[in-house]
Sequence to fold (69 residues):
Amino acid sequence: MDKRSKIAVIGTSAVMLLIVIILGAALVKKLTPSDEVMLLKDYYPLEDTEVLVILQDQISEEKGMLLDG
Fold:
């Protein structure tokens, strides 16, 4: 290989490595979890007089009623 071919191979390799690094950084940024927290009243939609029933760490399908509370 002459000097010009070596420079072309090194330059092409450097550009390809830079593209791989940029794509990897974008992928990591996209797949890492964010610090956003969802409000529980949005996650568990209940009426004002309803309560969520949790028995042995399981959320029941049936809802309770909040009376005099």
